[in-house]
Each structure stands twice: as structure tokens, then as C-alpha cells.
Amino acid sequence: MKFSQLLIDFAFLLEGSPRYKKIKRFFKNLLENDDYPYKKYFDAFMIFLILSSVIIIIEEVKSPISKWLYYYDVYFVTGVFIIEYLLRLWVYNDIHKIIIEEFENSVFLEREFDTKKVIKEIIKSKLEYILSPMAIIDLLAILPSYREIRILRVFVLFRVFKLIRYSSNITHFLQVLTSKKVELFTLLILVVFVVFISGISLYVFEERTNQNITSLFDAFYWSLVTISTVGYGDITPITTEGRVITIIIILTGIGLISFATSIIVSAFSEKLEEVRKERILGKVKKFESFYIICGYTHMAKLLAERLKKEKKNFLIIDLNKEVVDEAINSGMLAIWADASKKETFKKINFDKVAAVLALTDSDMHNIYICLNIRSFSKDVFLISRTIDINSEKKLKLAGADYLISPYSTAGLFAAKIIEQPIAIEAMNDILTAKRNAMCDQVEVLKDSFLDGRRIGDIDFNSFKIILLGVVRVFKAGQSRKNIKRKFYFNPDEDFVLKTDDILVIIGYSISIAHFKSKVVESSLKNARKKR
Fold it and tell me: 3-state DSSP call for residue 355?
């Protein structure tokens, strides 16, 4: 009973210890989480240990090695391998949760705590890891360090196998083969069958006349060498029947090799897109802020070029593989996926997404995209393209914050050009920055020189920019729907700026960049002073 109570107390002690959980989470991430920033350094360290230890053991076969290399391999490398093995065994599961679960069941069912059952479950759970292929490789990789038993040096091979854990390329290759295991297993059965039949046939016809074939093993060896189209020539049929069998096996071998090649190539083609997608999403995770463009249409291409020119990060998602390849070839980050499916955005952190733009040519698809985006984030700024005026209400209900109607905008623009061609041409030059003049927005940062200042006290002329107006944000709550914006065109000199206000300005790109940098610098400088 005392032992049971000790187990229960210990389990609850671990469950209630934030420090224990933090340490275990750290090692679990370090060993298993590919997204953990420090894992790549650990992997590189382990690859170095593996390769250096293999080189030392191979060198030792030729001649004695120095003492420091011997100590490095026997004590340091082996010690790290043992510690890694034990850590992996530890983080594989939480045994204290097994104890707590049994304790809660015993209390609920009003029965005694079953210590034997708990111990069996703990042993069973740990044996699952110990008997797994990679755990066996890890264990066997430790054995070459025991130099007294020379036969154990053969297990140096398992140290090379340990590289599978730390090389993503090897892992991807194995995953490709695993994905086609049924086809490859079928092929293996067919090869075994052909080798078996042809080997027996050759043995029957050649055993008495061919001095190189004295056993079934010789016949099977010849059959395997021939079907693989290697043909060493050490065993050659001399009878007519044997040569006929050889012709059949050679033709069969060519067919089987072609079949195997097609299986592996198709598997790599399928996996390559997945690997490329994972790598692109890995790059996206490193961004502090980025945009998501759903649909690489003509409008999206113009937007992407503008964002690229302004050195802003963005990700393109499209269902058409050809346009995705076109975007990638243009040096952009793009993935082949359906933006209306949940799986597409599962690995994307929407806290870093500045805005999502649904720019496909189908209003219905844009509606589904908006609904899907809102299932992940209620607050991200969502812009959608619309063609049919009847779809505008549906897109708003789907969660779109802003709608772009290219045909309506083009029609309005054409009408204004007829009425005021010079003014519209000037506005177009500013919006497209054709003459290095552009329209931009600047946020009033907390503690910056803009915060709490009157419009009249700010010398915009010294920055060589023109203030068009100020957008003030009114927040009635944390929800996106409770955020309202009001635009003050050409505000009075007594208008006082506040944090989160947005200034709409016109100027040369160099002037605007200089003004923005001064806003950021003053905000950081005053924030440091307050600290």
C-alpha cells in the first residue's frame, strides 16, 4: 500500500510541476519537433558525432589510434548516444499520466488502486519505443564502442543508420518508398517467384553438364544476377534449354526494372510537391508579417509584383499547378493547394498574417475562401475580388472586410478620365508611383513625435510630404466587427493625433521612407527613456 501511495504522490508531484513539464517539453522539441529553432543545431551536432565516430572506428581497423581519439569515441560519443537514447525513452510518453488515470478510475469505481496493472502499462508503453526500429538502431549503435569484443565493431553500420533521424533528405526518401510499399512488395514477390522458377529450371537442365552449377544456390545466384541485367559472366548456361531460359529472364528483368523505376519515379513526383510545400511553409513561418494571396490571376500578378518591389513578404495559393510553377519560377513563394480547404491553412500562424486576399476568378470560390479564412481567424483583414454585384452581400456575410470590383472600378475610372483626364492621369501616376511620387499611409506609433501632437505643430513641408487626411480607429471591443474607422479629410490645425491613427500622405518614395523611419525612431527612443 505504501508503494502504491508513493507512486500516486510522485505522479501528482510531476503533474503539478511546471518546471518538470518545461524541461520535458524542451527535450521533446529538441529531439522530435522539426519546427523547433534549436533542433537543427542538435541535428548538426549529432551528424558530426556519427560521422566522426565512424571514421575513427574504420581508421582503427588499419592501425592503432591515439588515446584522445579513443577516449573521445568510447566515452564522449558513446555517452552522448546513451543519454540521447534515455532521453528519447523518457519523452516518448508520460508514465505519470498512466498512474493518475488508474487512480482516478479506482476512486470513481470505489476499488483499490491496481499497482500491478499500472506497472504493466508502464512497461508496455516503454517497450513500444524500445522495440521500434529506430530505437533498436540507436541501441545497436552504442555497441561498437566496446573494443574488447571485436565482433561488435560490425555494428558501426547502425551508427550510419542513425543518420536517418537527422537527415531530412534520407527521411523523405524512406517516406517515398514507404508510400509505395504495397507496389514494391508485389514487385518483390514477383521477382522471388521468377528467380525461384528460373533457378530450378536451370538447375534441372544444367546440373549434369555445367561444372559451374553444382547446387540450387548457384542456380538461384545466376538467376538473380541475370534478372537484374548485371550479368557477371561467372556462370553461363551451355545447353539450349538453359540459354532459352536466359533470354526469357533477361526480357523479364528489363520489364521488372522498368516497372520498379516507374513506381519510384511516380512516388517521387507525388512526394516532391509535398516536400516543396513543406519547405515553402517553413520559410513562411520565419516571416514576422506576410500577406496571403489566394488565386494567382492577372490582378494577383500585378499585386504580387508590387509587393515584391516593396520588399513585402507574401504567399500565393492556387489550385492550378501551372500558374503555381510560374509564380515559383518568378522567385515568389507559392503552393499548389485549395484555399477553401481547412488543411491548407493548418500550419499557418494567422497572428503573423497582415491580410488575406481572395482574388480568384470565381465569386463562389472566393466566398468559400472567406468562410474558410474566418474559421481560422476572426480578426485578419480579408479582401475579396467580386465580379457579380449579386455576390457582394454574400461575400460580406462570409466575412470579407473589403470588396474589389475590377469592372466597376474600371468603368468609374473610364468615366472620370473623360470628365477630368489631367487630374485622373496625375492620380494614376501617384497610385502607380510612375514618377517616383506615391500615396502611402503612416501609423501613429505610441510615444512617437506624432503621438499627442497638433496637426499645425507638425512641419510636413520639412519632410517634403503632403497630408491628405487622417483615419481614426474607434474600438468598441476586441472583436473585428466592433472596430470602426472615420476619415478626416484635410483636418484642421487643432486636430490632435492619437496612437493608432493613420496618416494618408503623398510624396516622393524617399521622402515617405524618411518620414516613416523618423516615426519609428522617435517611438523607440521615447520608449527607452520611459524604461
Answer: strand
Q: For every residue of 195-249, which 3-state class applies, written as one string?
A: HHHHHHHHHHHHCCCCCCCCCHHHHHHHHHHHHCCCCCCCCCCCCHHHHHHHHHH
Query: What are the φ/ψ torsions at residue 432 (nearest 5 degrees)?
Result: -95, 0
Report the 10 Å Cβ neighbour count for 118.
22
Residue 508 parent element (H or E): strand 502-508
Residues 6+ apart with CB under 8 A from 423: 416
pLDDT in tens, 401-425: 888 877 666 666 666 666 666 655 6
Sign of CA dihedral 107, 112, 117, 118: positive
In whole angstroms, what is the distance from residue 145 CA to residue 152 CA?
A: 8
Average confidence (pLDDT) over 473-500: 75
Identify the H or E element spanning 108: helix 95-109
The grid cell for 364 is 463562389
**Collapsed DSSP state (helix, strand, coil) of residue 171:** helix
CA dihedral 24, 27, 33, 36 (to 10 degrees): 110
Cβ 249 vs Cβ 201: under 8 Å = no
The whole-angstrom separation of Cα 441 and Cα 468 is 10
Question: Once rounded to an integer, what is the mean pLDDT over residues 97-120?
Answer: 84
Stretch (H or E) spanning 178? helix 168-179
Q: Whole-model pTM?
A: 0.57
Is-contact 368 341, C-beta < 8 A?
Answer: no
Confidence class for position 531, pLDDT limits 50, 70, 90: low
Q: What is the pLDDT of residues 359-380, one digit of tens each?
A: 888 889 999 999 999 888 888 8
pLDDT at 26: 92
